[in-house]
Amino acid sequence: MAIPIISVVGKSNAGKTTLLEKLIPELVKRGYRVGTIKHNVHGFEIDHEGKDSWRHKKAGTHLTVISSPVCLALIEDVDKDHSLEEIREKYMKNIDIILSEGYKGNPFPKIEVFRLELKRELLCRKEDNLLAIASDVKINAGVPCLDINDAAGIVDLIEKEFLK
């Protein structure tokens, strides 16, 4: 069975990362192994100029692994923006659930973070596989609307739908 993927989506500054910071420890406390995928359409660098791994990449490697006794990082050249499913199949191992941040156009279930103060419309509808809304106000969108600060309640829903 494939590892379930839940995407946390929302407009910029809505609190996606903050919500993930609350959901992850709640899932871990319940005994689940959690993986995350953060989407960045602008690209990113984890290597720094002058470091050995950076020098390896500059010399022409296609793939570089940085390894230590406590963590491992892989830097791989890619020719496209990979889907969540591709990333899950290629890299995500030994976990029970994947939480992604971003990827609003994917087919997987989504929890949208919504804050009234941002004065913006919802990104997703029920038809977009919207599972729930995490908000600071009640919204009727045909899916559960949970308090943005109720990590336990949101994890209850995730657990019921995907982990039990």
State the gist of this model.
The chain has 164 residues and is an alpha/beta fold.
Protein described:
There is one protein chain. The protein is built from four helices and eight strands; from the N terminus they run E-H-E-H-E-E-H-E-E-E-E-H. By secondary structure, the protein is an alpha/beta fold. The chain has a six-stranded parallel beta sheet, with helices on both faces. Helix 1 (16-29) packs across helix 4 (151-163). The protein is globular and about 55 Å long.
* Tally of contiguous helical segments: 4
* Count of all domains: 2
| Extended strand count | 8
**Separation of termini?**
13 Å
The major β-sheet equals: 6 strands, parallel
Low-confidence stretches: none
Rounded radius of gyration (Å): 18 Å
- The chain-level structural class is alpha/beta
* Residue share in helix: 25-40%
In percent terms, what proportion of residues is strand?
A: 15-25%
Blueprint (SSEs and pairs):
Layout: E1 5-9, H1 16-29, E2 34-38, H2 52-59, E3 63-67, E4 72-76, H3 84-91, E5 97-101, E6 110-114, E7 130-135, E8 145-147, H4 151-163
Parallel strand pairs: 1-5, 1-6, 2-5, 6-7, 7-8
Antiparallel strand pairs: 3-4
Helix pairs in contact: 1-4
